[in-house]
Amino acid sequence: MSLGPYASFIVTSYAAAAIVVAILIGWVMLDYRNQTQRLRELDRSGVTRRSGRSAVDTP
């Protein structure tokens, strides 16, 4: 397969896009882990979610 005179530009562009996508996936995975850890800590400290209350429980 021949990419012609622009082969280096094409390969570099695809590599850069792949690196950006990989970084974004890693960022989302780390953020998910941090958010679930924060939720566990809040649950342990007694903070409840508003969605967990019924309409009768509202003041």
UniProtKB/TrEMBL annotation:
Required for the export of heme to the periplasm for the biogenesis of c-type cytochromes. It is a single-pass membrane protein. The gene is ccmD. One of its GO terms (cellular component) is plasma membrane. The keyword Amino-acid biosynthesis does not apply. This is Heme exporter protein D. It holds the Pfam family CcmD. It is found in: Cell inner membrane. InterPro entries: Haem_export_protD_CcmD (IPR007078). The chain crosses the membrane at residues 6-30. Keywords: Cell inner membrane, Cell membrane, Cytochrome c-type biogenesis, Membrane, Transmembrane, Transmembrane helix, Transport. It comes from Bradyrhizobium rifense. One of its GO terms (biological process) is heme transport. Belongs to the CcmD/CycX/HelD family. Its main location: membrane.
